[in-house]
Design goal:
By secondary structure, this protein is of the alpha/beta class. It has helices spanning about 5-25, 45-55, 70-80, 100-105, 120-125, 135-145, 165-175, 190-195, 245, 260-275, and strands at about 5, 35-40, 60-65, 90, 155-160, 180-185, 200, 220-225, 225-230, 235-240, 250-255. The structure holds NADPH dihydro-nicotinamide-adenine-dinucleotide phosphate.
Length: about 280
């Protein structure tokens, strides 16, 4: 039976270290501060606020309604770029369709780009230069390293190629000397390719998409998916992986919830700290 990787405990332990470093830079007069720009009505901010409070990072939430236009957000980004007290700026995705997300992302000063999404920071990752790396891929790599001391030469297969998860994760794994295969909705023979993976990461957004036939005996499986499904008349959050089905074949697997999710928030805090320290 697969070991269940306890992302929540691992994230809490990682945050203990962040808290110590935050306390230390505060003694030098630096107070890490994150600005979150939100227009999606999503409720996941409560978790970010809770963790930020626990590590001593200040968060300013700029909440817009669905009528917001790109110019209003662009003006706010310009103000925050110029504000020396703000170290990180997070523009939440799932914005209204009228808002030009990529254009706005690139208005964020790359030294405040806490999500690592500007073209400059993505380019730095892809060319192996130091920069800010997206939080979820960093969290995924951290979880993988709790199972494998050395991942050099292992075959890592990533399902999904978004610029927030799949692509940067594939690059991180490549930088860690894995052999990497990146799959997407046009890929053929998914189960067969996945069955060759020592490490399989799924970020497709399809509930229970990954079943036993995708898994090599002894593989490590990381489930990034957060999908709402209705079961027994109730809304439930499930991953991309059918855990019950896969657990008898895999060596280790992350649950949903309490797998990758807490690590994403922990690495958001890590990135704020990094930017506040003028990395
Ligand atoms: P996107 O919709 O941006 O990307 C999904 C990717 O999956 C695309 O590359 C798409 O391929 C690929 N895909 C879709 N269907 C298939 C298929 N049938 N076979 C193979 N590949 C497929 O999503 P995100 O990357 O933003 O998020 C993915 C999931 O991860 C979501 O459930 C999201 O909620 C979750 N998530 C969780 C986080 C966490 O902290 N745990 C953080 C961020 C996201 P193509 O490019 O060809 O369209």
């Amino acid at each position: 039976m697969a070991k269940i990787i306890d992302g929540l405990s691992i994230a809490n332990e990682f945050c203990d270290g962040i808290r110590i470093r935050v306390d230390e830079i505060k003694t030098r007069g630096v107070y890490p501060r994150l600005a979150v720009i939100n227009a999606s009505g999503e409720n996941s901010l409560s978790n970010i606020l809770k963790v930020a409070t626990s590590v001593g990072i200040e968060v300013d939430v700029y909440q817009f309604d669905k009528q917001v236009n790109s110019d209003e957000i662009a003006n706010l980004i310009a103000q925050l770029n110029a504000d020396s007290k703000t170290h990180g700026i997070s523009l939440r995705s799932h914005l209204p369709k009228s808002v030009r997300f990529r254009e706005l992302i690139n208005l964020i000063d790359s030294d405040k780009d806490v999500e690592g999404l500007t073209t400059l920071n993505q380019g730095r990752l892809f060319s192996g230069e130091p920069g800010v790396v997206p939080c979820t891929p960093l969290g995924v790599l951290h979880l993988i390293r709790t199972v494998h001391e050395d991942i050099s030469g292992l075959h890592a297969v990533v399902l999904g190629r978004s610029s927030i998860v799949g692509r940067p994760l594939a690059q991180l794994l490549l930088n860690s000397n894995c052999t990497v295969t990146l799959l997407h909705s046009y890929s053929h023979d998914l189960p067969e390719i996945c069955r060759d993976a020592d490490i399989l990461v799924s970020a497709t957004g399809h509930p229970h998409f990954v079943t036993e036939e995708f898994i090599k005996e002894g593989a490590t499986v990381i489930d990034v998916g957060i999908n709402k499904v209705e079961e027994d008349g109730k809304i439930k959050i499930v991953g991309d992986v059918d855990l019950d089905n896969v657990a008898s074949v895999a060596k280790a697997i992350t649950p949903v919830p309490n797998g990758v999710g807490p690590m994403t928030v922990a690495y958001l805090m890590h990135n704020v700290l990094k930017l506040a320290c003028c990395y």
